Amino acid sequence: MSHAAAWQRDDMRLRDLLPRVATLPLGSGALAGNPFLVDRQFIARELGMVGGVCPNSMDAVSDRDFVAESLFFSALHLVHLSRWAEDLIIYSSGLFGFVQCSDAYATGSSLMPQKKNPDALELIRGKAGKLQGNLAGVMAVLKGTPTTYNKDFQEAWELM
């Protein structure tokens, strides 16, 4: 039940996140918008951008909040999954034996053939740590960028 409570918070966090990250930057030039008569509100609705239209063109091209917030959500969600995975690893160990990991998600040990290694669960733990590092990397890239578009932002995509 404790894991389900964390996942429910993750679900609420994701629903709260969507209006902030799903905004339409279309029509925002690198400095002052564009001269074309584009109905940005209509396009935002058609594309399902629940956050509407970015209100400021300079912010729209320099904002990477959507990257940072998406990574934060993902990193925290993986922390919760990692804790669940660790519990299952412990509970499937010889010391406890409360649960058994299916062969589809485990491999045998080369040293002890009777032992199962819960590979999928261990990979969840590893991915959680890697994503936390990616979040820190994106924040480090964003902290020193001036307003509008910068080549530094290309480093953020690799970490996404």
Overall average residue pLDDT: 89
In spatial order, strands of the major sheet run 1-2
Biggest beta-sheet profile: 2 strands, antiparallel
Shape descriptor reads: elongated
Integer-rounded radius of gyration: 22 Å
Query: So how many helices?
Result: 6
* Oligomer kind: single chain
Helix content: 55-70%
Give the DSSP E fraction (strand runs of 2 or more residues): under 5%
Counting helices, strands and paired strands, the structural category is mainly alpha
Low-confidence stretches: none
Separation of termini? 31 Å
Say how many strands there are.
2
Sequence of secondary-structure elements: HHHHEEHH
Molecular structure report:
The protein is 56% helix and 2% strand. The chain is mostly helical and 160 residues long. A hairpin with a 7-residue loop joins strand 1 and strand 2 (116-117). Helix 4 runs antiparallel to helix 5. It is elongated. The two termini are 31 Å apart. The mean pLDDT is 89.
Key features?
160 residues, mainly alpha, two-stranded antiparallel sheet, 6 helices, 2 strands, 2% strand
List the helices and strands and how they pair.
Layout: H1 2-21, H2 40-46, H3 57-62, H4 65-91, E1 107-108, E2 116-117, H5 119-142, H6 154-159
Antiparallel strand pairs: 1-2
Helix pairs in contact: 1-4, 4-5
